Amino acid sequence: MSEENKNINNESSEVEVESAAARRLRMMGISAESEENKEEIPPQKKGILPFLENFWYHYKFATIMIIAAVIIVGVGVYQYVTKITPDIYVMCSGPFYYDNTEPLMKAFTTVMDEDYNGDGEMMVNIIHTVRYNEEQIAELEKLAEASNQEFEFDHAFNAQEYERFNSEIMVGESIICIMDASLYAEVSDSGIFMSLEDALGYMPDEAADDCAIYFKDLKFAKYNRIFQKMPDDTVIAIRSRTAMQKMKGKKAEKSHRNHLEVFRNIVEFEYPEGYEE
């Protein structure tokens, strides 16, 4: 046999041997190539830290959203539970301005007999509207001219405040109303105020008419100097229970009784012992 034929036969035998070995590996589910080239797989880590790392990797955004939702709900619940609700609502309206109504609130809390709504704090909500009529605006202009000052008046704001007054007096939460006499004259015939006979059981000497009292004639207003900037003809009156309030049931009825009690305390206020007017 020639040398060339021997080489061919040897190569064929090697291929057959390699092919047979490869077939055996495939029957075992292993390829020859993968068996030779496979890398050693490191053992998996065990414990809570790898679990958390894996969880965070796959559910990062969902977790952030859930945590944010829980925080928002928690803050809302806390604010609801700790919210302080006013016991009494008082409206003060007219040609006067208070940049800070806290002294007014403190004055009215002194004539409250108790924490009416039981939330742990006696609180009065002051609804303050500033409104000038045409005569009062003209008077302001005269004062500016007398002092050689340029007069500018915000009529748009004045009209807006007048709308607030009308809205509050008709459908607002304010039960005790302190207002300029000209404002009172515009709404006194609407039937929204209790008569003094019904509210107090008598007609006080300071009465302006059947439903209103000159506020600054009362000892309460004289004692609390914060009210001195109000015009002398400012009046105080108490709203009667409206049809809407009657529909709200016993809670609204109790609230109106509480306001009526404070109204009586204002009218019947006496100076502390030793005070000189």
Structural class by secondary-structure content: alpha/beta
Give me the CATH architecture of the largest domain, please.
Answer: 3-Layer(aba) Sandwich
Domains counted in the coordinates: how many?
Answer: 2
Termini separation? 146 Å
Proportion of residues in β-strands: 5-15%
Spell out the helices and strands N to C.
Answer: HHHEHEHHEHHEHEHH
Radius of gyration: 43 Å
Give the overall pLDDT as a whole number.
82
Give unreliable regions as ranges.
4-17, 32-38, 75-82
Number of strands: 5
- Describe the largest sheet: 5 strands, mixed
Could you please say which CATH topology of the largest domain applies here? D-Maltodextrin-Binding Protein, domain 2
Instruction: Specify the CATH class of the largest domain.
Output: Alpha Beta
Commentary on this structure:
With 277 residues, this protein is an alpha/beta fold. The protein folds into two domains: 48-83; 85-267, D-Maltodextrin-Binding Protein, domain 2. The protein has eleven helices and five strands, in the order H-H-H-E-H-E-H-H-E-H-H-E-H-E-H-H. A five-stranded mixed beta sheet has the order 2-1-3-5-4, with helices on both faces. The longest helix is centred in the N-terminal third of the chain and has 35 residues, at 48-82. The protein is extended and about 120 Å long. The termini are far apart.
